[in-house]
Design brief:
This protein has about 900 residues and is α/β, with parallel strands linked by helices. The protein is built from 35 helices and 24 strands. The protein binds a DNA duplex (8 and 8 nucleotides) through helix 25, strand 18, helix 30 and helix 34. Belongs to the DNA polymerase type-A family.
DNA sequence: GCGAGCCA
DNA sequence: TGGCTCGC
């Protein structure tokens, strides 16, 4: 429906944010305690409106707190309406900031409601021959519908809505929009506390208005009105009806300016908008930002000369060109596949202010040769992928000078996303949206798209690199970046490339056994339940346990009974079925994740090539995915058998595992300088037993295994930042006892207490904490106003230096091990937080053990010795 | 405490 | 999307 008239969209700001707020089931809250779901929902709606209607003008009307003329007429007006919760009220000023940054007009006026402003603007707009679209959650505005004025009423939250113009309104109600006020005068409105005529409801009112149109007309012809009851009610409430009408009538003559040019839609101020979105943690909006050319700082980005190898420059000349001392930028466009050798599409090299693009696989081989021979330093964004690809071409040593993804991570490890697109938008205000995004090589001119993309990517990477280098230096992060993170990239790529052989027939057999036991359990559970049902569904399991079998429900969730392991564990002895369900759960998890999940991940070479990610965790640890090799079961019997499926390449190899003994507690001893802790480690004591002995004042040889395990839980609590609440449920004691336990612990470890307090104090002052290598983690939660959030922040502040420093140490050790193994047959396969797994050639066994012990124990000099336990085995299960 | 992955 | 469970 094309229309030459200009369109003005008028939004009822209060109404819409209110709808948005209540439409969102879960609260959205930023790390520093700002509620955002109202704004979020509002902006989603706004985006949709812009997209669907492409308005020429836009204005958002707000209510002002001051009383309006309606309150003066009728004190009870809007009384009894539930007060806006402070979590929502605080969002309105921020919403206004966002709208301001978007350059969307706003209007509010003392003494008038948003409705009146909307009514007035729409009237003036109609007079100026514009089309109007009113967006609100309030049906009152329907009275404004006209031939050129649409009213869009949100419904069921904000995703659905009804759109009325005059015609649609008449069709639905049977009378003119303007008479909606007469209808309301009769039937009243609870939400606004408009009384209406008692005894006349929606049906009666509609019928009367269809017949008489206005209440004036009704009273004019009151004698005709039927039935008698209705007439009596009307006659008894004459003044109420007219007052109600006055209250319901939108004032369309508010004294406002009528120059709408200031409401004309123009581009947002993206710099401001980005700042606010970052503050509100609206990452999805950030990513979607479509920054126009003239505002995008793209223009500030350099554009480079592009040369296509084989077309603009010969391969030989290209290779000569990149043989300088300067580091070169490298991008490889490939699928980086972990299931087979990666499929290489193209590559781009940035050198001498020129982007060289190549599509020829043989050129890549020569490129690898050249980088290897001349020891050319490379840089890029997420260059692990490039290294991974090149490793398939050639076994070589890489010299990495910079990686913008890793730098972004070191600068802000808790950021959720370090992709080039996001960082370009956040740091440079540059949109990297490309016309042919995601369609490289499928449509359009393949050559041209690679060239454009590479050119833009290098412009962004180069610019980011400049900024990041400064920031790394200013924030004293160069040590962790250069000594740990950069050299680690090649190690990670290598672990991905090498992979871990999976004994598929072993695993299948194990899977069959799981399935057999699963079938037995299923049958028995059905028997005990007296019916067949889906055991995996908490919705079905809940009623069976807690209603049919009469077990006592301990907890409830939103929909039904909680059936988590913690709950079931408590009623384990109450019914035979419960332990079976627990076992069934574990078994299905095992077969789903570790049997059926693992088998399809075996690559063509019979090995599993997991991905290792260096930019995910907030503490500095690395993570693993596809599959996650860091959570393969170990604690319990059937699960740990999975480890038996991970085997060396062939009979010439064995596995060697090397794990740090109590690294986190040793780090704590070192960082806090706690004499008792240091002494225990130096004497080589069982640390949990020693802790129990100190805290309880009992000689070590009298510590029971229960006491030892309690102390172990406390030590864990210290490492993982557990709360007294967490500790109490872990130990099955009351919160009070847990608090007592913790305070006893601190009494005997005063330096640890002081260390913890200092971390919190430092974090409150600086907003971050640091690890041994100077790695930082910003913790916004530390200054949150909400108690729970602040508590969390304090635990993070205490716990991150310990976990993060341990992560630092292991990273240094990995780099040492990897470099020491260079040129040998033995390869580093995995890192599981405090242990390394090496596939070891039997003839290198002694040497590998020596390398591991030396590299790991001397990775860093601490106040306590770093102790490494070595194990050798024919499969991963053997390494215990 | 942090992360990954499966299932409904 | 959230509940659940695995690891450290």
């Amino acid at each position: 429906m094309k229309n030459s008239k200009e369109l003005i969209v008028i939004i009822d700001g209060n109404s819409l944010i209110n709808r948005a707020y209540y439409a969102m089931q879960r609260p959205m809250i930023t790390k520093d305690g700002m509620y955002t779901q109202g704004i979020y929902g509002f902006l989603n709606m706004l985006e949709k409106i812009k997209k669907d209607y492409d308005p020429d003008y836009m204005v958002v009307a707000f209510d002002v707190k001051a009383p309006t003329f309606r309150h003066k007429q009728y004190e009870e007006y809007k009384a009894g309406r539930r007060k806006m919760p402070p979590e929502l009220a605080m969002q309105i000023p921020v919403l206004k900031e966002v709208l301001d940054a978007m350059n969307i007009g706003m209007i509010e006026m003392e003494g008038f409601e948003a409705d009146d402003l909307i009514g007035t603007i729409s009237k003036r707009a109609e007079e100026q021959d514009k089309r109007v679209l009113i967006i609100t959650g309030d049906k009152d505005a329907l009275q404004l519908a006209g031939d050129n004025t649409g009213v869009l009423i949100t419904r069921k939250g904000i995703s659905q809505f009804d759109l009325y113009d005059r015609k649609a309104f008449v069709e639905k109600y049977g009378f003119e929009p303007i008479n909606f006020i007469d209808c309301k005068a009769l039937m009243g409105d609870q939400s606004d506390n408009i009384p209406g005529v008692p005894g006349i409801g929606e049906k009666g009112a509609t019928k009367l208005i269809c017949q008489y149109a206005t209440i004036e007309e009704i009273y004019e012809k009151i004698d005709e009105v039927e039935p008698n009851g209705t007439r009596t009610k009307l006659m008894d409430n004459y003044s109420i009806a007219f007052m109600s009408k006055r209250l319901a009538t939108i004032n369309r003559n508010v004294p406002i300016e009528t120059d709408f040019e200031k409401y004309r839609c123009v581009e947002a101020d993206y710099a401001k908008l980005i700042e606010i979105y970052k503050r509100l943690e609206f990452n999805s909006f950030l990513k979607r930002l479509d920054i126009p050319q003239e505002q995008s700082k793209n223009q500030e980005l350099e554009t480079y000369k592009v040369k296509v190898i084989g077309r603009d420059i010969s391969e030989d000349d290209f290779l000569k060109e990149i043989t300088g001392k300067e580091p070169v930028g490298l991008r490889i466009y490939s699928d980086h596949s972990h299931m087979k050798a990666p499929e290489l599409d193209a590559f781009a090299i940035f050198a001498g202010n020129t982007v060289f693009c190549g599509h020829d696989f043989s050129a890549l081989v020569k490129l690898a040769d050249r980088i290897d021979e001349t020891k050319t330093y490379i840089y890029g964004h997420g260059i692990k992928n490039e290294i991974y690809d090149l490793m398939h071409i050639k076994d070589m040593k890489f010299f990495v000078s910079f990686d913008t993804e890793i730098a972004g991570y070191v600068l802000e490890p808790s950021a959720s996303d370090h992709s080039l697109e996001t960082m370009a938008a956040e740091e440079l205000g540059v949109s990297m949206k490309q016309e042919n995004e995601g369609q490289i090589g499928m449509f359009e001119d393949f050559e041209e798209s690679i060239e454009d993309m590479a050119s833009l990517e290098f412009a962004v990477i180069n610019r980011l690199m400049e900024i990041q280098k400064e920031r790394l230096k200013a924030e004293e992060l160069t040590e962790v970046f250069e000594d740990a993170e950069l050299p680690l990239i090649e190690v990670m790529a290598s672990m991905e490339k090498v992979g871990f052989t999976l004994d598929q027939s072993y695993l299948k057999k194990l899977g069959d056994e799981f399935a057999k036991r699963e079938a037995e359990l299923t049958e028995r559970i059905y028997q005990l339940a007296g019916e067949e049902f889906n055991i995996k569904s908490p919705a079905q399991l809940g009623p069976i346990l807690f209603e049919k079998l009469g077990l006592k429900p301990a907890k409830k969730t939103k929909r039904g009974y909680a059936t988590g392991a913690e709950v079931l564990e408590k009623v384990k002895d109450k019914h035979e079925i419960v332990p079976l369900i627990l076992e069934y759960r574990k078994l299905t998890k095992l077969s789903g994740t570790y049997v059926d999940g693992l088998l399809p991940m075996v690559a063509e070479d019979g090995r599993i090539h997991a991905a290792f990610n260096q930019t995910v965790t907030a503490t500095g640890r690395i993570s693993s995915s596809s599959p996650n090799m860091q959570n393969i079961p170990i604690r319990e019997e059937p699960g740990r058998l999975i480890r038996g499926a991970f085997v060396p390449a062939n009979e010439n190899y064995v596995l060697v595992g090397a794990d740090y003994s109590q690294i986190e507690l040793r780090v704590l001893a070192h960082m806090s300088g706690d004499e008792a802790l240091i002494d225990s480690f130096n004497r080589g004591l069982d640390i949990h037993r020693a802790t129990a002995s100190r805290v309880m004042g009992i000689p070590e040889d009298e510590i029971t295994s229960q006491q030892r395990s309690d102390a172990k839980a406390v030590n864990f609590g210290v490492i993982y930042g557990m709360s007294s609440f967490g500790l109490s449920s872990e130990l099955g004691i009351t919160r009070k006892d847990a608090e007592k336990y913790i305070s006893d612990y601190f009494e005997k470890h005063i330096a640890v207490k002081e260390f913890m307090d200092e971390q919190v104090r430092y974090c409150k002052e600086h907003g971050y904490v640091k690890t041994i290598l100077g790695r930082k983690r910003h913790i916004k939660e530390i200054n949150a106003s909400a108690y729970m959030v602040r508590q969390l922040g304090e635990r993070l502040a205490m716990n991150t230096p310990i976990q993060g420093s341990a992560a630092d140490i292991i990273k240094l050790a990995m780099i040492r091990v990897y470099n020491a193994l260079r040129g040998m047959k033995s390869k580093l396969l995995l890192q599981v937080h405090d242990e390394l797994i090496i596939e070891t050639s039997r003839d290198e066994l002694d040497q590998v053990k020596e390398i591991l012990r030396d590299s790991m124990e001397n990775a860093m000099k601490l106040a306590v010795k770093l102790v490494v336990d070595l194990n050798t085995g024919e499969n991963w299960l053997d390494l215990k």
